[in-house]
Amino acid sequence: MLPINKKNGPCDPISSNCVIWQGPDLPCVDICYGDSISAVVAALCDQLVILQEGSGAGIDISQINQTTLNGGPAYTETELIQLIINNINNSGGSGGGVWDCGETLHCLLNVPECYLSVNPNITSPDTIGDILTELMNEQCGSIQMRQGLVNSIQDANSQLSEIKRKPSGDVNPVLKSVCVDKDNSSPQPVAVLLNKVEADYCITRNNVGTESDIAAMLALTPSNPLSLADPIGARTGFNPHITENPTSIAQALKTAMRLITDLRTAVEDLQATSGNNGILSRMVSINTFYATGATCAIATTAAATPANCVDIWNSTGIQFDTNVRAYSTPIAEASYELATGAWYALCPGSSDRAQYLGGSTGVLTAPFWSATVITC
After folding, report:
1. What is the distance between the alpha carbons of residues 97 and 76, in angstroms, rounded to a whole number?
2. Beta strand spans in the chain (E)
3. Closest Cα partner for 35 from 60, 18, 48?
4. Cys-Cys crosslink for 111: which of 72, 124, 289, 300, Cβ 3.0 to 4.6 Å?
5. Range with the poorest average pLDDT among 83-97, 178-192, 222-236
């Protein structure tokens, strides 16, 4: 190979045998790294001739099964390719040409168990054609059912709208009275009964009092328990004003509450002016009794016999309270005060004893008892 291109300047003549192939090995054309360019070009030319003539070491035609191809056999690669193209274009024989639609529809396909349980017309496996037919029939049925449901819903909406537009209930209902006109056994229009109810309500409200009257009356209720032992002035929320000639129950109750206050005030005033509050308690408790005697020993001996044991009363309930007088009954009067100088022993005579210093001839001021003693 001699370079003869002189356009770009003079060049030295170099033989193609002196130019080395430095590319990778190419087994398909029998070219290796280090071959001369002359050998590379010659190998490529040999392969080109083989491809053009369709013979040689390219494709072994004798090893290809052409029994399913119409119009054969082919002896060269070119003839084989053309024969395949002709059979594709002309589906005139078994195994040759385009796939037949009928054959596709008869192909078997496995069907899921869930579909078999709802469609008894299908088996597994079944043909594609049968499966498609069933699916299309079901789709048509679903479309018709949906359309029927839509029509039913539209009809129902129309009927509901018509019902809403119509007046409901009896235009002039009648009832039988059970209270305001119970003596009338005939049903009466509701409007008539309503007027009678309103009339009765007005009478009742006038007799009982208005809502504000009742609320004012309830506001007069004592906020704390009204113990007789507590002075009235110490209580709050219980100062009603008397209403003369009350015309309703609320006003009458208000008057009654005021009268109760006046009565309690009068009792308290009597207690203060008379010196006798009249409110006494059993000394210690209802289960505590005492025996009396002229001496401590006599009182102790008497306390051992239950028949000798009696109650003692005072205003505080404290045993032998030196600050208050003591009585034989729950009445704070001089005639019922304990005897001056008498001894009293707590039954059954095994514990507290004391001498009473008050009485008609005793002390006038506290202490009214001697010091409590344990033994005589």
Report:
1. 21
2. 108-109, 126-127, 174-175, 188-189, 281-282, 290-293, 313-314, 343-346, 353-355
3. 18
4. 124
5. 222-236
Portion of the chain with pLDDT greater than 70, in percent: 76
Backbone CA torsion sign across 225, 226, 227, 230:
positive
Rounded CA separation 220/214 (Å): 10
364 pLDDT higher than 90? yes
Tell me which DSSP letter residue 20 carries.
B
Residue 96 amino acid letter = G
Q: Which of 39-48, 325-334, 347-356 has the lowest mean pLDDT?
A: 39-48
Nearest to 287 by CA among 259, 262, 309: 309
Helix (H), strand (E) at residue 103? helix 101-105
Range in 127-141, 143-157, 239-253 the model is least confident about: 239-253
Residues 6+ apart with CB under 8 A from 176: 184, 185, 186, 187, 188
CA distances from 254 to 188, 206, 242, 249, 251 (A): 40, 16, 7, 8, 5
Q: Measured between alpha carbons, how far is residue 204 from residues 35, 43, 199, 213 in Å?
A: 133, 131, 9, 13
CA 128 to chain CA centroid, nearest Å: 54
Tokens of 317: 């309930």
Beta bridge partners, 96, equal 93
* CA gap 273, 373 in Å, rounded: 36
Whether the link from the prior residue into 73 is cis, omega within 30° of 0, is yes
Q: Give the separation between CA 81 and CA 83, rounded to whole angstroms.
A: 5
329-357 as b/e: b if 16+ CB within 10 A: eeebeeeebbbeebbbbbbebeeebbbbb
C-alpha dihedral (75, 77, 78, 79), degrees to nearest 10: 30
Extract the tokens encoding 57: 């070491």
* CA-based radius of gyration for the chain: 66
